[in-house]
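Researcher: Quick test of sequence recovery. Tokens follow.
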């Protein structure tokens, strides 16, 4: 009900009619070496309908790792530009913002569209020049971190805000975001495939588009399980791949040795691999490095200066190095399924066949064995997410990808996903017929909201 109220509130705000002409989109499509998947075309269609409707768009675009969300988002941004406005794309980290920029630049050039980057690093005269160009309308699409929503950032005519939601915006931030432009449309992207029941519970205020196909030419990733006793074999395998000019990730669960948990720390593994593979060949990146060092290590790996990158889970989201074909995940049994799936998605982005090595410490627990078994069996993120939810139970959701899952006082997400869908439809229907909740049933719903302490919902019904 709370999410339905938030959705009604956003909808009630009159939207802008943004009709694309298709000219810029056509140029981009012509420049692509492949044709978009049916799922991509369908999502672009849904978005363009929303943008042309005159109601504010509030849509979630969810797709599996590598399903091509960025292209769909860029097409949506082009609709805003074709309609005479501007678009903004916001990423959670500077590494990701720069990567989005690098990915969009060639597409933008094909369509003669000006794309610019704005992050916290822009200072002084350079920043002022960008802001002036933005308010004049010379910049069509702005890419950046949350710096793009600071007070002094003024758009000439912002029509679409795209949020790469790796850091989980709540409903409140989603609404705030749309307020930067007059009634601009909002598209939120998430790379964590979400089971349907969770999507309804977490994003009931939004319409959902799903990308459930992979672009052509993506080779399946081989996934192998290896016990930690065979580290030397894995290192040999890396040596062979490096000789062929390939790159690899090696992910460790912790940053430094901790006596409590006996996991090999990233720093120790880094020293070990450097001794084995050569000084300059191995880089290190973890969350406790200063941002400048972290960026430098990532950039060196992206350029190919270092061939092996030892990392903690900071690389889980979005980093794109097509030449990296091996992902070693040490103590894989300590990771959640969603995290393993995200990490595996960092390889297999080029044309060469890729491998993901799940290193585990025997003996495995029953649940550890089941988790790693599912990873070997399937690459379908939606299936992995369903299994994840079932195994962990919505009661104790751990792991980063599922944080922010609604806590229900009675409901049970896995077993009642059918009921979720009915509840969502019912809440939307009630608000359609009785927007101010004044009928007998509306009054009962109001009491329920009050009992469930849904204060934000009560604020949304303007009349007490």
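Model:
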């Amino acid at each position: 009900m709370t999410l339905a109220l938030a959705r009604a509130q956003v909808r009630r705000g009159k939207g802008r009619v943004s009709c694309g002409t298709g000219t810029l989109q056509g140029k981009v499509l012509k420049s692509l070496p492949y044709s978009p998947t049916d799922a991509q075309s369908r999502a672009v269609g849904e978005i363009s309908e929303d943008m042309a409707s005159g109601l504010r768009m509030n849509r979630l675009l969810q797709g599996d790792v590598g399903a091509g969300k960025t292209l769909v988002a860029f097409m949506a941004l082009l609709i805003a530009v074709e309609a005479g406005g501007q678009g903004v794309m916001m990423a959670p980290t500077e590494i990701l913002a720069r990567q989005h920029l690098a990915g969009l630049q060639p597409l933008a050039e094909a369509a003669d569209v000006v794309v610019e980057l704005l992050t916290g690093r822009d200072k002084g005269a350079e920043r002022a020049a960008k802001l002036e160009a933005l308010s004049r309308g010379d910049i069509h699409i702005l890419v950046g971190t949350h710096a793009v929503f600071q007070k002094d950032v003024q758009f000439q005519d912002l029509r679409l805000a795209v949020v790469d939601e790796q850091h989980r915006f709540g409903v409140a931030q989603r609404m705030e975001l749309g307020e930067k432009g007059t009634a601009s449309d909002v598209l939120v992207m998430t790379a964590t495939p979400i089971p349907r029941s969770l999507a309804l519970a977490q994003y009931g205020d939004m319409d959902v588009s799903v990308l459930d196909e992979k672009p052509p030419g993506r080779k399946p990733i081989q996934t192998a399980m290896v016990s930690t006793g065979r580290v030397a074999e894995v290192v040999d395998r890396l040596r062979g791949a490096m000789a062929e000019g390939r790159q690899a990730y090696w992910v460790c669960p912790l940053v430094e040795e901790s006596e409590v948990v006996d996991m090999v720390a990233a720093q120790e593994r880094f020293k070990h691999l450097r001794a084995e593979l050569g000084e300059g060949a191995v880089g290190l990146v973890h969350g406790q490095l200063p941002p400048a060092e972290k960026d430098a290590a990532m950039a060196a790996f992206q350029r190919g200066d270092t061939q092996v990158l030892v990392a903690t889970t900071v690389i889980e989201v979005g980093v794109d190095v097509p030449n990296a074909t091996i992902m070693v995940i040490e103590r894989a049994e300590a990771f959640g399924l969603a995290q393993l799936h995200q990490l595996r998605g960092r390889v297999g982005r080029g044309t060469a066949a890729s491998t993901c090595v799940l290193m585990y410490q025997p003996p495995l627990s029953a649940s550890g064995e089941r988790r790693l078994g599912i990873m070997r069996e399937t690459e379908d993120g939606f299936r992995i997410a369903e299994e994840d939810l079932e195994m962990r139970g919505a009661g104790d959701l751990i792991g980063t990808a599922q944080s922010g899952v609604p806590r229900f006082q009675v409901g049970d997400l896995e077993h009642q996903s059918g009921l979720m869908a009915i509840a969502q439809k019912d809440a939307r229907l009630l608000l359609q017929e009785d927007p101010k909740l004044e009928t007998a049933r509306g009054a009962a719903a109001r009491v329920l909201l009050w009992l469930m302490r849904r204060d934000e919902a009560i604020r949304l019904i303007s009349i007490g």
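The radius of gyration is 23 Å.
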